[in-house]
Amino acid sequence: MNPSDILKKYFGYDSFRNGQEEIIKSILSGKDALAIMPTGAGKSLCYQVPALLLSGITLVISPLISLMQDQVKSLNEAGIHAAFINSSLTEAQITKALNLAAKGTYKIIYVAPERLESNRFMDFALNSEISMVTVDEAHCISQWGQDFRPSYLKIIEFINHLPVRPVVSAFTATATKEVKTDIECILKLNRPNVVVTGFDRENLYYSVEHAAGRRKDAFVIDYIEKHPGESGIIYCTTRKNVDSLYEMLFKRGIPVTSYHAGIDNNTRKKNQDDFIYDRAQVVVATNAFGMGIDKSNVRFVIHYNMPQSMENYYQEAGRAGRDGENSQCILLFSAQDVIIDKFLLDNKNFEEMDTEDIELIKQRDSYRLQVMEGYCKTTSCLRNYILEYFGEKTFSPCDNCGNCHRDYTEADMTAEAKWVINC
Ligand code: ADP
Ligand code: MG
């Protein structure tokens, strides 16, 4: 079978999307790969398809238990033998999974990076044919990335221990130069095929509104009432904000639900499903909402507060318009947001990291916050601001964002003013 047959047979799709085929083919030719593609572009298929064609096992290193569970579930439903090994399993379940894995039952095994240090796992890996090691969410390896995980630094040691070096592929949606260099160096990618697909999401209309307190509430209500039936996400920085905004919208009779880590598991799952299956038009949530959620018809993402970085903003706003239809990404900015973000960063929990690392991360957090604030305050093209931050060249203003349109309004007003004066 070739990659297109696999795509059709297991995933039910007729054609590859931009970048997918190139990565798959280069992996199959034995080359390392680094793919930088925006959220929703379809990175998973880029390693799942070759995994089915390579002779041995593919190990996928993934940072989040829920992501592994979702992916394995859908692979199994598609008839693919896949499993995950992480701390959500009991010791007995891990033994069972490793025994089955050692017999070659699974083509794809998802593991948390910490697992690579376990002797039992190493034993299994040393005695199996590992064809590929895939590092998903590879920006976690970089202290420049927004969610650095020290355990990602162990991946290379693990690879070095294997009797035959597998193909190594890395995937991320974070495209800054620093992160890219870190991934290549720390994972010691061997002359990788680097594929960067464009970061522009043409169907997204970005805008920033300067509004504080009540004006934010008024904006949200007005927006929802003017867009009846349109599915949307409203992100707030704090759980408290989520609760109060939810309450207010609920009282207005808007079909709304809410999501944050303080809501108990069952209710949270139910709320998430209500949104996904369109029983609730709007979800008010913290940034705990969204990872691994694949809802295509989200028409708007409103940020009630400024997020802490462009990486976060791009990822969260990017949950709008996955179906390619026009969608709005609106950020409601107030100076108070910056103060809250600074407070949250100052009180970030670093657990067992070295003082030196903590210092470095703090500097970078603070830089990222400044860039984010810059986005809220710029009067130039917002799309270009995003693209340039992610290292893309831009040529002219997009004519499809709040600032580009605002410029025109101002230009018109000036013309009108001139006319009045001339008269
Ligand atoms: P990413 O990891 O890049 O954020 P995913 O791998 O989660 O994105 O894929 C996002 C969605 O796109 C999934 O629902 C996936 O099934 C779908 N998808 C991926 N490749 C294709 C394709 N070639 N044709 C149609 N849909 C695709
Ligand atoms: Mg992904």
Quick description:
It catalyses: Couples ATP hydrolysis with the unwinding of duplex DNA by translocating in the 3'-5' direction. With 423 residues, the protein is an alpha/beta fold.
Descriptive overview:
Keywords: ATP-binding, DNA damage, DNA recombination, DNA repair, DNA-binding, Helicase, Hydrolase, Isomerase, Metal-binding, Nucleotide-binding, Zinc. This is DNA helicase RecQ. It is an enzyme of class 5 (isomerase). This protein has 423 residues and is of the alpha/beta class. The protein is built from 16 helices and 13 strands. A 7-stranded parallel sheet has the order 3-4-2-5-6-1-7, with helices on both faces. Strands 8-13-12-9-11-10 form a 6-stranded parallel sheet. Helix 11 links the parallel strand 10 and strand 11. Helix 2 packs parallel to helix 3 and helix 13 packs antiparallel against helix 14. The longest helix has 23 residues. It is globular, with a radius of gyration of 23 Å. It starts with a helix and ends with a helix. Bound molecules: adenosine-5'-diphosphate and magnesium ion. Adenosine-5'-diphosphate binds next to helix 3.
What keyword list fits this structure?
16 helices, binds magnesium ion, 45% helix, alpha/beta, 423 residues, binds adenosine-5'-diphosphate, seven-stranded parallel sheet, six-stranded parallel sheet, disordered C terminus, globular
